[in-house]
Amino acid sequence: MKRLLAAALAVTALSTFGQAYPGSRPIAIVVPFAAGGPTDRVARDLAEAMRKTMGGGAHFVVENVGGAGGTIGATKVAKAAPDGHTLLLFHIGMASTPALYRKLQYKPLEDFEYLGLVNEVPMTLIGKPQLPFTTYRDFEAYIRANASKLNLAHAGLGSASHLCGLMWQHAVKLNEAMTTVHFGGTARAMTALVGGQVDVMCDQTTNTTGQIESGRVKAFAVTTPKALSGHRLLKHYPSLQEMGLKDFNLTIWHGLYAPKGTSPAVLTQLNRAMKAALKDPAFIQKQEGLGAMVVTDGRTEPEGHKAFVAAEIVKLKPVIEAAGKFAD
Ligand code: MLT
User: Fold this and answer.
1) Measured from the CB, is residue 38 less than 6 Å from ligand 1?
2) DSSP-derived secondary structure for 140-162
3) Which of 101, 106, 135, 305 is deepest in the core (most CB within 10 A)?
C-alpha cells in the first residue's frame, strides 16, 4: 500500500509553482569541485542519463562550487530550498570530511535526503611524465628517498585524492610527509602534473585513464585490493596489496543528495529517474570505459545509500586518525 501511495504521489509530484515536477525550472546538480574533474564527469554523465529517464522534460544544469575538500558545495545544498531544484553529487568526501573538519556547516546524516549511490571508482597512483622510472617498486623507493622534496597534488582536505595520499603515505610508513599542493579539483591538479609542476597524485580512474593511455602521465598502481584485470588498460598495473601494502583498499563512490525536507513525491521521482539512468547502456558504457562500476545493489535506494555512508563515516575515522601526520 505504502509503495502504491508513493507511486501515486510520485506521479503527482508538484514543483514549487504547482506544475508537475520538475516543471520548467532547471534542476541544478551541485558538484563541489572544479569543472573537468572526476566528480564533475560523473555528474554530467548522470545528468544526461537522468534527463532521458525523466522523459526529456527535465533540464539539468551542473554547478561547480569548489573548495574545502567539497564541503563548501555540500554546505550550499544543505542550506538550499528543499524544492527538488538543487541536488548534490558528492563522493567519499561525505564520509571523510567529518573526521577532518572540526566545524562542518552541516550534519551529513541529518541535513540531506539520500537519493542513492551511483558508482564506485578505483584510484590510480600516478606521476609526472619526467619521473625516471616505470615500476611501482621504483616509485616507492624514489618517494621514500625524497619525500619532503616531492609535491603531492590533491583537491583539498577530505577530497578523494587527499584521502588516498594520506592513506598511501601512512601505509608505506614514510619517515616524513610529502609536500602537498592543494587544487580546487583534480582537473587542475592533472594539468599541473602533466606539466611537471607537481610530482605525484592519486586520482580516480575516471580522470586518469585517458591521461595514462596518452602517456601524459605515468601510472604505477591501483588502490583496489586486486588489479583491474577486466580493464583493457588498467589491467597492466598492480594493486597496492599485490605490492605488499597489506589491506590497502580504497574505492571512491559517488552519491546523489537533496536538501532535507524535499517532498517524498519529488524524492521518489528523482530516485526512480536515477535508478533508470544507472541502467542506461550509454551511461554504463561511459563509466566502465573509465574503470568505474555502476552500483546495482540496494545502495541505489535511499535507505541503503544512507546506511552505507553511515558505515563509511565510522570506517574512515580511525583510518584518517591513524594517518594523522599526513593529513595536511
Ligand atoms: C577528489 O580528489 O576528491 C576529486 O577528484 C576532486 C574532483 O572531482 O576534482
Assistant:
1) yes
2) HHHHHHHGGGSEEEESSTTSHHH
3) 305
CATH of the domain at 183: 3.40.190.10
| pLDDT, position 14 | 54
Is the CB of residue 121 less than 8 Å from the CB of residue 289?
no
Q: Which phi and psi (to 5°) does residue 150 adopt? A: -105, 145
Domain containing 150 equals: 122-250
What is the C-alpha separation between 297 and 116, in angstroms, rounded? Answer: 10
**Alpha helix stretches (DSSP H) within the chain:** 2-11, 38-53, 71-78, 93-96, 136-146, 160-171, 186-194, 205-214, 264-278, 281-289, 302-322
pLDDT tens readout for residues 52-76: 999 877 999 999 999 999 999 999 9
Q: For the whole model, what pTM was predicted? A: 0.93
Ligand 1 contact, 83 CB (< 6 A): no
Q: Can you spell out the DSSP letters for 233-270?
A: TGGGS-BTTTTT-TT---EEEEEEEEETT--HHHHHHH
In short, whether 33's Cβ falls inside 6 Å of ligand 1 is yes
**263 near 84, Cβ under 8 Å?**
yes
Q: Is the CB of 69 under 6 A from ligand 1?
A: no
Low-confidence ranges of the chain (pLDDT < 50): 10-12, 16
Ligand 1 centroid to residue 8 C-alpha, Å: 38
Total domains present in the chain = 2
Beta-carbon contacts of residue 13 (< 8 Å; ≥ 6 apart): 20, 21, 84, 263, 265, 266, 268, 269
Domain boundary among 250, 265, 295: 250
The CA-CA-CA angle for residues 319, 35, 72, to 5°, reads 55
Q: Whose CA is nearest to atom 9 of ligand 1?
A: 185
CB of 159 sitting under 6 A from ligand 1: yes
Cell for 126?
Answer: 600516478
